Amino acid sequence: MITKKDKAIESINSDFEEFANLVLLQLDLLEEIVSSGELVIAEKTLKKIDSNEDELDKMEIKISDKIIRTIVLYSPVASDIRKLMSSYRIVINLERIGDLVVRITKFLKMIKKQEVYDSLSDVISNTLMQSINMVKKSLLSFTHNDKEFAIWTIKNDTISDEINQKMFKKAIKKSHIDNENKQLFLSFANIKEMVSSIERIADHATNIAEAAIYSLEGKDIRHQPFDED
């Protein structure tokens, strides 16, 4: 017999899937923008991203309330509580990833020098694709109860950091900055903020992977040296 607790958890899982898919859509839109190499973003795309962000904000509150209500009203067993708390942690990180998508598009629009962006666009695009892949793998680790995906995500967090450092070394080698060229400085500054935000997406993917391991094993590995054994 399906109990009220079962129905409540099923509803949360359904909302969670919808929420996660919307965040992944935002990341796909961002990837299209960055991979185009253009600084001008279509107004239709910007409106879609903003509309999705508003929906994500509403959904985060809705899912969080459902999780709290289910725990209080139905006293789920320990394994269900782990799953629910992991879902709660993941939703928070996904919502922040959504915020970062909007933030990155804003910095992109503020870049004034196309040639500066062109010289770094391949590194930016590769960094973004790596971060998006980490998000997808971390979500798969949770939804498919697959620890290997979680391990892969956590290990690859350092790779994203290395790519960020590589981009700045490349920028220093290629640039001949005129102190009077303010637009050039602004372009570099906004590119730096873009890549920092992309790197933070990878950080949130790692948080999701850690929550997936907690859901699977009841082991909280946050703030600890990672040991896959």
Topology:
Layout: H1 4-36, H2 43-74, H3 78-110, H4 114-143, H5 147-174, H6 182-217
Helix pairs in contact: 1-2, 1-3, 1-4, 2-3, 3-6, 4-5, 4-6, 5-6
Q: What does the model show?
A:
The chain is mostly helical. It is 84% helix and 0% strand. It is elongated and about 65 Å long. The mean pLDDT is 83.
Q: Keyphrases for this structure?
A:
mainly alpha, 229 residues, 84% helix
Shape: elongated
The proportion of residues forming helix, as a percent range, comes to over 70%
What is the ordering of alpha helices and beta strands? Answer: HHHHHH
pLDDT averaged over residues: 83
What is the tally of beta strands? 0
The N- to C-terminal Cα distance equals 38 Å
- The residue ranges in which pLDDT falls below 50 over 5 or more consecutive positions are none
Instruction: Specify the number of helices.
Output: 6
How much strand?
under 5%
The main pleated sheet reads as: none
Structural class: mainly alpha
Tell me the Rg in angstroms.
20 Å
Describe the structure concisely:
By secondary structure, this protein is an all-alpha fold.
